[in-house]
Amino acid sequence: MQRERPSLRGARAPAALVGLAAGAVFWRTAYPTITWWDSSSYSLAAATLGINSPPGSLLLTLIGWPVAHLPVGDSPAYTLNLFAGLLAGIVVALVYAIATTMLRVTNTDPHMSLAASLGVAAGALTLAFSGTLWAYAIMFTPYVLSAVFTALILWAMLRWWIDADEPNAWRWLALLGLLFGLDFSVHRTNALLIPGAIVWILVRRASTLRSRRPIVAAGAGLAAGLAVHFLLIPIAIFTHSTLNFTDPSNLSRFWDYVTIKQLGGSFLLQLFPRKSPIWSVQTADVLHVLGRNFLRWSGPGGVFGVLPAMAAVWGMAMLWRRDRRLAAAFACTLALQAALTVLYFNIPANFFREFDRHYLPVCVTIGVLVAVGLGAAARQAVGSRSASAVAIAAVALAIWPASQLWSNWSANDASRRYFARDYAANALLGLPPNAIYFTVGDNDTFPVMYVQSEEGVRPDVTIINLSVANIPRWPDQLTARDGAFPLSMSLDQRAQLAKGSWADTSVALRVEGPPERFGLAPGSSMLDSITLNVRPSYGKHMLPAEVVLLDIVRTNAWRRPLAFAITGGQSAMEWLTPYGRMEGLYFRIVPQRNPLADLSSLRARLFDLARLRGYADSSIRLDEWSRRMALQWYAPLMTLLSADASSGALDACKADRAKLLARLPLDRLAAPPEYRDQIDSACGTTPKY
Predict the structure, then answer these.
(1) DSSP percent split of the chain into helix, strand, coil, nearest 5
(2) I want to staple 222 with a disulfide (CB 3.0 to 4.6 A). Which of 177, 400, 485, 679 is the partner?
């Protein structure tokens, strides 16, 4: 039987309107600046044409680079966050277009009545205001662009389904291959749709896979998309961005980059052994995220949280009733996508970060079912073109996206959240001039790098991430940018030192200059030299980062201040620990053993220099990582309070405690009991909160 080829012309304007409606909410709730994790690193990559850690999302950087330089918003990060909202709006528009096409191709509503259009729009907006898509629509990361590719792939599959019997249907497979290839330079998650796409083709027209032209077309499209990745090489050669740790500037290092050799290689495909139980942990994690988006029994929206799941079930039932072959193909695609998501990510139990961002493509596929279900339900409910019936249906359908909007607004309204930006600026501004600042993780590194690069905060500081320092070639990149940086060993010398078995070694550093050179008070007593008992942290071999640190310490010879982020604790200072002095959000290395804090400068950093917007404002939601990073301030506070109490200045102790707790309330930060106990007892009396 010849299928009717549905036209999409009438769907374009409504799809655009639905996308703009969603985008308006995303823009209203967008972060005004960077936030934690990927937001900071990808904003920095786009603003500076840098190369992020693999897989790196090259395509996101290439698209984001011109966007970051548009005269829109107060900063590149804000402009990029608005762009993320635009991308998410495109996802919503595509879901509308896909669902509309499915209703037409199944003859559920070939000409798309107003009621059906309203239903599909309600379904698309239900996805828009679900927790996961909205959470990433307000910050610049790869995950929304990955969702765009999910929707484009589903749309190309559906268009091929319609034209599969036509001579030129191979063009849709060429497009499908191109989309898969391009997505490889986004975040690779959509590769999990390839088995579903193969099943999709087999169900619709199995002979396609025995024909040369479609296979060649799909392969050529895939190769063209993958070829974009080669742009990494010229970018790595010519970029001036500090964000180019892995330097894929030749074919060998390029291959190491795309295969993620730094993290284990083989494209990081580790299906077995499983890192945690596949059902009780890994599958449960995916189901938990999907449930939070489409099937919630509690929360601000109450039982209305189950409505999206009901719509998705109805959508699948409608497809099965109208076109069992299409329904079977879509169900297999969704089932394979979800199952392969569990297998591929192979998450460990109690992982420190949630994986919801990696489940977003599955959410998009389910979102299509929600839109199809609501569109079909609206068409059946109205049954006529009565204006009053359509109005009633519109009000009823509005419950679906409205319940999502109500439930998720508080969690996703980030329009007044400056936590990451303020932390980074506070960390930099408190450092001594010309400092070398050692960090340990993502959240104490990339926000700091961003505000230094794009806001011009403390360009005199050199930021060194100790994890990145384990990359063998990275120190050479650092000295290539700054020939005066205190590193003297060659790549071969560092490798040889790390390779050999290490015996405990004492390294003496002579101290020259007045106390003021080290941030000490005039007349302070100092050691003539300090002795470092250098030994590996683990086993008998020095880590590359430990070799780099030793090289810096010896070559620097006190010329530049050495400071270690407080986030790494004292252990991050290795054998320098006895000489670390608490000075705020960092420890500074000074030529005194177990040095006491300078109370006046510490008090100034805590109360005069630090900007702590939003922590005391209960109307601004505090996310987990903003709380965790803010808890770092309690360590310098305790240092100050202990010094006050030791000197008998109990009134000053109480005043200092009250002043900081007014800006960083213990309850708002959900401080652990041990923090509260120490702070409460620091001044001899328990405060009244």
Answers:
(1) 65, 5, 30
(2) 177
